[in-house]
């Protein structure tokens, strides 16, 4: 087998020296790799079909929402708004953990109520004794 590998490498090197690979589409650009190396092959096919049909798993949607919230958080300087965004991020993160089947499995409604409660408390940050509830 090593002889065959050496022959293939030799022919590839000769073709590259002649410039046969110079005008290939996408030359110089990174290859579009999907991060599914750890996904079993039988699941990859189903994921690819759903992806091509435009469907996105709930976990991916939540990760996108978390990324968008993080971007918004980085652009905001108002402390109350930052706290509300962080509360929403916490609720999304907890919901994402429940989708993963992680150690903390909480109903989505419970996560939403926690985020609302934190947002209410943040609204009272400027009021005296706001943190002593």
Automatic annotation (TrEMBL):
It comes from Paraburkholderia translucens. InterPro entries: DnaJ_C_subfamily_28, DnaJ_homolog_subfam-C_membr-28. Residues 7-73 form the DnaJ homologue subfamily C member 28 conserved domain. Keywords: Coiled coil. This is DUF1992 domain-containing protein. Residues 59-86 form a coiled coil. PANTHER family: DNAJ HOMOLOG SUBFAMILY C MEMBER 28 (PTHR39158:SF1), OS08G0560600 PROTEIN (PTHR39158). The keyword Lyase does not apply. Signal peptide: none annotated.
């Amino acid at each position: 087998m090593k002889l065959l590998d050496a022959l293939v490498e030799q022919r590839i090197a000769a073709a590259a020296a002649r410039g046969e690979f110079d005008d290939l589409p996408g030359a110089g650009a990174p290859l579009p790799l999907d991060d599914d190396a750890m996904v079993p092959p039988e699941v990859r096919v189903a994921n690819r079909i759903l992806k091509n049909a435009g469907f996105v798993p709930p976990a991916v949607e939540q990760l996108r929402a978390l990324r968008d919230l993080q971007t918004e958080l980085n652009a905001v300087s108002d402390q109350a708004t930052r706290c509300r965004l962080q509360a929403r991020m916490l609720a999304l993160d907890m919901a994402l953990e429940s989708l993963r089947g992680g150690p903390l499995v909480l109903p989505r409604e419970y996560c939403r109520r926690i985020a609302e409660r934190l947002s209410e408390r943040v609204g009272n940050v400027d009021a005296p004794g706001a943190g002593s509830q």
